[in-house]
Design brief:
single chain, 236 residues, mainly alpha, 12 helices, 67% helix, globular
């Protein structure tokens, strides 16, 4: 039941992300920020759901684990969609859905579309910043792992927050979303480790080891890198 409710919440997050991206495309920063607040509220509900699952002991889980067979949370295409739209363009994560052509088509379409952060970069260009042309029209199925030229733009925004207030707020709200995803992943890993230890998961993955590696995943590389830029330079 917890997983079913979580899937509904993920569907709602996905819907809000699509609307948020549409606001970015239309230069509607204010309404977009409101959508991010809603996304964050749903994320917090998803994080809270782990508290119930953390009450499950190994003895509890052994009562029904065999009934799960090879079912796994990794098979959630709703979660996969969200990660793709936020920028985790990794086709290898889609292979688990190869048996379902309809789902694969949905994920492949998402993979080819600009991510939320791709639209943020385009927004920066329309706001008058010097964004390299090759970042505006590229193969969006490839992951974006950061660019020093975009970091420089964010540095200007962070050093002049009064002038660029809404863009500054946008960046910080994106970091909020990133942080909440990390909290969700960490609680997921903690719940699995508490129940099955270091054993493989039901989906055939390495369980806790796989989830720990997922904690290294970042969506908004430039927004991490700008922090180093801000504190390693003296303002001019």
């Amino acid at each position: 039941m917890i997983h079913q409710v979580s899937e509904l919440s993920l569907k709602l997050v996905h819907h809000q992300i699509i609307q948020f991206r549409t606001h970015l495309i239309n230069d509607e920063i204010g309404p977009g920020l409101k959508k991010v607040d809603r996304i964050k509220a749903i994320q917090k509900q998803l994080i809270t759901s782990w508290e119930t699952l953390l009450t499950m002991t190994p003895a509890d889980y052994m009562l029904f684990r065999d009934a799960l067979d090879n079912s796994s949370g990794f098979q959630s295409y709703g979660y996969r969609q969200i990660e793709i739209f936020l920028g985790n363009k990794d086709p290898s994560t889609m292979t688990v859905h190869r048996h379902d052509p309809e789902v694969m088509a949905v994920l492949e379409n998402a993979l080819a579309e600009p991510s939320v952060y791709d639209e943020v970069i385009r927004l920066l260009a329309r706001q008058g910043f010097d964004v390299p042309a090759e970042l505006l029209e590229r193969d969006f199925s490839n992951p974006y792992s950061g660019d020093t030229r975009i970091v420089a733009i964010w540095e200007e925004i962070y050093r002049n927050t009064d002038k660029h207030w809404y863009l500054y707020c946008l960046a910080e709200k994106l970091m909020d979303v990133e942080t909440l995803f990390q909290r969700w992943r960490f609680d997921h890993m903690s719940a699995v480790e508490r129940v099955i230890g270091m054993q493989p998961g039901t989906g055939g993955l390495s369980g806790v080891a796989f989830l720990k590696k997922a904690l290294e995943l970042k969506f908004f590389h430039d927004l991490y890198d700008v922090r180093a830029a801000l504190f390693c330079k003296t303002p001019t």
